[in-house]
Write a structure and sequence with these properties.
heterodimer, A: mainly alpha, Cytochrome-c3 Hydrogenase, chain B, three-stranded antiparallel sheet, 17 helices, 10% strand, B: alpha/beta, Beta Polymerase, domain 2, five-stranded mixed sheet, 3 helices, 20% helix, elongated
Chain lengths: 408, 174
């Protein structure tokens, strides 16, 4: 500014040296409803302000008027890339509150499903990171394997995206042969595909240049920001709910927790890829264990929890007790024992927690979801400070932000 | 030596004496209550103490108890010691007429949005919060929707003529 200038210009006038850019809420590059107001100096990000809440659906409020089994459908819509994990997490929370003990076979079947959903979740995230760095092929290629996972869901529960899978105490029906065949097919074919997928990216010069050093975070900051899941592990902290507070018999399985060092996009990518290998390992193990059950045990697919698990239809028609349970469950007239429980599972994005308070009524008194996305999205402005505009997009996709989970 | 609930309780009581109360262990998770002026001191102590090391804020939310006069709103903290892998939960109660609670944002960056969410839905005023405004609801909203005085609509109400959904005096109209 020249010294001769006497007129004082108001703030935000042409004297302003930065540009404000509104990224979102419906920008094709943001893969969801996110709004970011970026302050740019040329192409460098000076600051970012996130706005969330565009798809808030008041799940916590709705849950206060619903019997336990109707809340499963709400959990579907949190992280919709891995809804079975949310469903199972919710059932496990209820089972903890009610003191229901599930048979081993149910636990293993659940693990198969949860690990399949973890793979589909990571697969989407990593391939979308590829898309944002200019490689569309990987994304299209792996879609057919996500499709296969969805077909397995379909065999197990009848739906694909918002699965509403399982019931309190187990599954609504046993896995059929087609489901097992498809799991076998997946186990046989997927390792080769994942290898190809990795070959395409891991040592790819363009991909590395785009992701190494983009959106890094130290372990200390990550913990302070409440990071969990792959994003925390990429920063070098080996915290995994599956190992630290095992649920659904995860203690019976051996697997590694991959960790990164720098917490940047590249490390997050590598950690997710490694986790998919570990998930495959777990699924293989669990599948073998399921096959080992003999006789009556091999047919078990739910726990004995008559007050919460719908009886078989033919029993409803012929047995008095079954009819009563059926009626009470469907009408939502089952009293939930009073209690307070926090339970968490390792979701696709981190620790997915359910804080459930019951006062002895038919619906929860209070239900709070600890949504990992919501908690770590706060760090976004710190992650992108000083980065290039193009990094803003790739950091967002490599954090695996899911709007449904953020806004609940 | 593993950190047990007993040890935590003893250390807390050695430091704060009778000010902390209501120790319970529902489903094995140590739970207690603290006066609302002390919430930061308790958290800071849990954070700094060499033995306790509760340095991870897992969750922060509020609960509304309209029937408990003078302590209608509870703010619930879930803390996690990642070294010994122990969780605890503690609550502070505040009257709904003056819902001021000190913010935890200085200690945990993650508390920022969690407190905003809690403010948004329950109207808890986190004193000292750097940016306490609504986060999930629209800015123009004038009430705090998760409070119990806003019940969800009764599914059986009949005063509403909403023929499309089968409600109303005439039931589902063709």
């Amino acid at each position: 500014m020249s010294v001769e200038q006497h007129i004082k210009l108001p703030e935000g006038s042409i004297e302003k040296t930065t540009t404000t850019l509104n990224l979102g809420p419906t920008h094709p590059a943001t893969h969801g409803v996110f709004q970011n107001i970026l302050e740019l100096d040329g192409e460098r990000i000076v600051s970012a302000e996130q706005t969330v809440g565009y798809i808030h659906r008041a799940f916590e409020k709705l849950a206060e008027r619903r019997p336990l089994y109707q809340i499963t459908t709400l959990t579907d819509r949190l992280n919709y890339c891995s809804s079975p994990i949310n469903n199972m997490g919710w059932h496990l929370t209820c089972e903890k509150l009610l003191g229901v003990k599930t048979p081993k076979r149910v636990d293993y079947l659940r693990i198969i499903i949860m690990e399949l959903s973890r793979i589909s979740d990571h697969l989407i995230c990593n391939s979308v990171v590829g898309v944002d760095s200019g490689a569309f092929t990987g994304f299209l290629y792996v879609m057919q394997y996500r499709e296969l996972i969805y077909e397995i869901y379909e065999e197990v529960c009848g739906s694909r995206l918002t699965t509403n899978m399982g019931r309190i105490g187990g599954f609504e029906r046993n896995f059929n042969n087609t489901a097992f065949e498809k799991i076998e097919k997946f186990l046989a074919e997927y390792p080769g595909v994942l290898k190809e997928f990795e070959n395409m990216f891991t040592r790819n010069r363009i991909f590395m240049e785009r992701t190494i050093g983009a959106g890094p975070i130290s372990a200390e900051r990550a913990l302070n920001y409440g990071f969990t899941g792959p994003n925390l592990r990429a920063a070098g902290v080996d915290y995994d709910v599956r190992v630290h507070s095992p649920y659904s018999s995860y203690e019976d399985f051996e697997f590694d927790i991959p960790v990164g060092q720098t917490g940047d996009c590249y490390d997050r990518f590598l950690v997710r890829n490694q986790e998919m290998w570990q998930s495959l390992r777990i699924i293989k193990d669990a599948y073998r264990k399921v096959q080992e059950f003999k006789g009556a045990e091999a047919e078990v697919f739910h726990a004995d929890a008559p007050a919460y698990y719908l009886p078989e239809k033919k029993d409803v028609y012929t047995k008095m007790e079954a009819l009563i349970w059926h009626f009470k469950i469907v009408m939502g007239e089952t009293e939930i024992p009073p209690g307070e429980v926090y339970y968490s599972v390792e979701g696709g994005n981190g620790e997915l927690g359910f804080y459930l308070i019951s006062d002895g009524g038919r619906t929860p008194y209070r239900l709070h979801f600890r949504r990992p996305c919501f908690i770590y999205y706060q760090a976004y402005s710190e992650l992108t400070k000083g980065a290039m505009l193009s990094d803003a997009v790739i950091v967002m996709s490599s954090l695996n932000l899911i709007a449904g989970e953020m806004d609940a | 030596m593993a950190l047990t609930n007993e040890t935590i309780k003893d250390r807390l009581q050695a430091k704060f004496g009778d000010q902390l109360y209501g120790f319970e262990e529902p489903y094995g998770l140590l739970t207690f209550e603290a006066p609302k002026d002390l919430n930061l001191k308790v958290m800071q102590f849990l954070y700094d103490d060499e033995e306790l090391r509760f340095q991870f804020l897992t969750d922060l939310c509020a609960v509304h108890y309209p029937d408990k006069a003078g302590r209608e709103l509870a703010v619930v903290y879930h803390l996690h010691n990642l070294v010994d892998n122990v969780r605890i939960r503690f609550k502070v109660f505040t009257p709904v007429a003056q819902p001021d609670v000190f913010t935890a944002t200085q200690l945990y960056s993650s508390a920022n949005w969690m407190e905003r969410e809690t403010f948004d839905f329950y109207g808890v005023n986190f004193v000292g919060h750097p940016n306490l405004k609504r986060i999930l609801n629209v800015d123009e909203m004038e009430y705090f929707p998760m409070r119990k005085e806003f019940p969800l609509e009764d599914q059986t109400r009949i005063d509403k003529d909403d023929a499309m959904f089968g409600r109303g005096p005439g039931g589902l109209k063709a």
